[in-house]
Design goal:
The protein contains four helices and five strands. With about 110 residues, it is an alpha/beta fold. Strands 1-2-3-4-5 form a five-stranded mixed beta sheet, sandwiched between helices. About 30% of the residues are buried.
Length: about 110
Amino acid sequence: MDLTFTTRPDRGCLIVHLDGVLDLGSVPQVRQHLEHALNDGTRIFVLDLTGVRLIDSTALGMIVWLCKELSGDGGRVYVAGAQPLVLNVLQVTSVDSLVHITDSVAEAEAHISA
């Protein structure tokens, strides 16, 4: 799992670029970084899943956890660029009802600044 974080202070969000498989082996590292960002005050996250080809229930749990952490704080989670298989998993499990789904990071940033 390749993991890159990009902070966009002008947009007030943290973009998390993920690449590979998001599963039991990689989620703990990602979650640790998300926890640090939450503790530092980040309230808007863009999870760029463009390069993610597979997610499992651990990854779904992490996304639900992040949404719960942000509920009541006015925080938001965007999932950008999800491949068809990943998007299908998000839809079948209704996780798509908790997050904002966008086709790209640019689209998510446009929603944030609107």
